[in-house]
Amino acid sequence: MIQKTALLILAIAVVVILLPAAAVTVGGCPGFSPETAEAPAPAGLPEQGADGKVRLYRADCKEIVVLDLEEYLIGVVLAEMPSSFELEALKAQAVIARTYALHRHPAAGGGGCDRAPGGADICSDSTHCQAWLDPEETAADWGAGGENFLKRIRQAVSETAGEVVVYRGKLIEAVYHSTCGGRTEASDALWKGGSLPYLQSVACPYCKHSPYYRGEQLIPFTRLARALPGDPALPVLSAGQPPPEIAAETPGGRIAALTINGRTIGGPELRNLLELPSTALTWEVREEGLLFHTRGRGHGVGLCQYGADGAAREGKCYKEIIHFYYPGSEITPLKP
Ligand SMILES: [Zn+2]
Ligand SMILES: [Zn+2]
């Protein structure tokens, strides 16, 4: 009995001593203490640019507008992520968008954007740089409630002001996508020979609530014949012809290349030609065409946006979310 009581007292003492350490707050992220928290501050961080401005080419009105970096980011988060997402997901998006923008910014050593006549730092075309919407115009279009959504986005940007993601002291390639569908993709699937240590395939349990988690698309043989390379007059599948076959797979289990109709076509090209949501797919041969079963939406590399929202719903903070999708990276403030 005495022994049991002594053990109980010991157990209580251990809990009391250890609890404050477990509840430590790192940079406003409760309970988060990454392995890298003790690492020295990375050297060689880029400056924000001589004047801290972003020359944005607005693809919608074909004009260049000059904005403060933080002001620009409000329009990016607004355009790139549903504003109803959890605040910690919006904050992760803000840090990632800031990192992406600076990585491209000539003042930080980036190549800028070549879409605008005469050049710009970045453009608002999501297929080229990052999407951007005018915050005031968009909030007005949303009508009642628009201002509240905008307020949350402003909060996400201001609560992470100046924070960027680095790997070994350099800004990361902060790529992101809508929904991975259960597993993200490695960078070498996106850029040939471009394996980056912080862009590896990770299992993502957080995006099951996405409307793009799983999908189906039936593409008739006539449309396949028109869309795919080769003679559009010839049938894609006919008697004696082998069904489509996977020619190569990516590290994340997507289609790197597919052999169809005797020709081999790259996964991303196939996705573009057939307007499929992703290259994570399987198919069935049906009488009228190919039925594609798809997983996720987008290239699958880096942050999974619906995953960020799902992780935030489970109580993860923005720093934990970023470390999960970019393993080994660090979040750090820009030099003043
Ligand atoms: Zn661009
Ligand atoms: Zn995901």
Mean of residue pLDDT values: 84
Distance between the termini: 62 Å
Bound ligand species: zinc ion
Number of strands: 16
Strand arrangement across the biggest beta sheet: 4-3-5
Report on this model:
The chain has two domains: 53-209 and 300-333, no CATH class; 214-295, no CATH class. 31% of the residues lie in helices and 20% in strands. The chain has helices at 2-22, 69-80, 87-104, 135-142, 146-158, 221-227, 267-274, 305-313, 318-325; strands spanning 25-26, 29-30, 53-58, 63-68, 122-123, 163-167, 170-171, 176-177, 214-220, 245-249, 255-260, 263-266, 281-285, 289-295, 303-304, 330-333. The chain has a three-stranded mixed sheet with strand order 4-3-5. Helix 2 (69-80) packs across helix 5. Mean pLDDT is 84; it is low at 1-27 and 31-45. The structure holds zinc ion (2 copies). One zinc ion (ZN) binds at residues 113, 115, 122-123, 125, 128-129.
Draw up the topology in text.
Layout lengths: L1 H21 L2 E2 L2 E2 L22 E6 L4 E6 H12 L6 H18 L17 E2 L11 H8 L3 H13 L4 E5 L2 E2 L4 E2 L36 E7 H7 L17 E5 L5 E6 L2 E4 H8 L6 E5 L3 E7 L7 E2 H9 L4 H8 L4 E4 L3
Parallel strand pairs: 3-5, 8-15
Antiparallel strand pairs: 1-2, 3-4, 6-7, 6-16, 9-14, 10-11, 11-12, 13-14
Helix pairs in contact: 2-3, 2-5, 3-5, 3-8, 3-9, 4-5
This protein binds zinc ion (2 copies).
Give descriptors for this structure.
alpha+beta; three-stranded antiparallel β-sheet; globular; binds zinc ion
Summarize the structure.
This protein has helices spanning 2-22, 69-80, 87-104, 135-142, 146-158, 221-227, 267-274, 305-313, 318-325; strands at residues 25-26, 29-30, 53-58, 63-68, 122-123, 163-167, 170-171, 176-177, 214-220, 245-249, 255-260, 263-266, 281-285, 289-295, 303-304, 330-333.
